[in-house]
């Protein structure tokens, strides 16, 4: 999640990896409400969701992540049962600490992006088209 030049990230309590805070949407929850709830649970930061900056799909696990810019509206960042560290990272630190699949979500910058990955590395667009063509051809 991006606010200004620093990028909000957490170190996951379950596996020690650095990722964006967030979570899985509840059945009756909008994406904006879900991201605000997820970030609050993991970082104790209240926020106002701003624009959607990207859609990222893990082709291996079938998970789609929506990434938003935000404006902080209260709370003091701290860890929770789901995070062992909360930090506002510089772009250089994001690249050092996160896998490519998570780094790109934070560094994509302005505009809206749609990308796919295997959980760690981006899948080139040409490969995505081949996978999509095979999947739709089988249906």
Throw out a few tags for this protein.
single chain; 139 residues; alpha+beta; four-stranded antiparallel β-sheet; 4 helices; 30% helix; NUDIX_hydrolase-like_dom_sf; NUDIX_hydrolase_dom; NUDIX domain-containing protein
Topology:
Blueprint: E1 2-3, E2 6-12, E3 18-19, H1 31-43, E4 46-58, E5 63-74, E6 83-89, H2 91-97, H3 100-107, E7 113-117, H4 125-138
Describe this structure in words.
By secondary structure, the chain is of the alpha+beta class. It is built from four helices and seven strands, in the order βββαβββααβα. The strands form two sheets. Strands 1, 2, 3 and 6 form a four-stranded antiparallel beta sheet that branches. A hairpin with a 4-residue loop joins strand 4 and strand 5. Helix 2 runs antiparallel to helix 3. The protein is globular, with a radius of gyration of 15 Å.
Sheet of most strands: 4 strands, antiparallel
Question: With helices defined by DSSP (H or I, 4 residues minimum), what is the helix count?
Answer: 4
The end-to-end distance, rounded to whole angstroms, is: 36 Å
What fraction strand?
A: 25-35%
> What is the structural class?
alpha+beta
Count of beta strands: 7
Uncertain runs: 128-139
Mean pLDDT: 82
- Helix fraction? 25-40%
Shape: globular
Radius of gyration: 15 Å
**What is the N-to-C order of secondary-structure elements (H for helix, E for strand)?**
EEEHEEEHHEH
Pfam families: NUDIX
Family: Belongs to the Nudix hydrolase family.
Protein name: NUDIX domain-containing protein
InterPro entries: NUDIX_hydrolase-like_dom_sf, NUDIX_hydrolase_dom
């Amino acid at each position: 999640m991006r606010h200004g030049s620093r990028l909000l990230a957490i170190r996951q309590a379950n596996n020690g990896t650095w990722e964006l805070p967030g979570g899985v949407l509840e059945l009756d929850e909008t994406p904006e409400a879900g991201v605000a709830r997820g970030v609050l649970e993991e970082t104790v930061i209240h926020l106002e969701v701003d624009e959607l900056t990207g859609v990222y799909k893990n082709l291996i696990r079938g998970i789609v992540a929506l990434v938003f810019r935000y404006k902080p509206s209260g709370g003091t960042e701290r860890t929770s049962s789901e995070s062992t560290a909360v930090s506002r990272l510089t772009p250089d630190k994001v690249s050092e600490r996160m896998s490519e699949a998570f780094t790109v979500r934070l560094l994509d910058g302005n505009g809206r992006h749609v990308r796919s990955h295997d959980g760690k590395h981006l899948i080139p667009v040409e490969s995505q088209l081949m996978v999509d063509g095979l999947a739709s051809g089988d249906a």
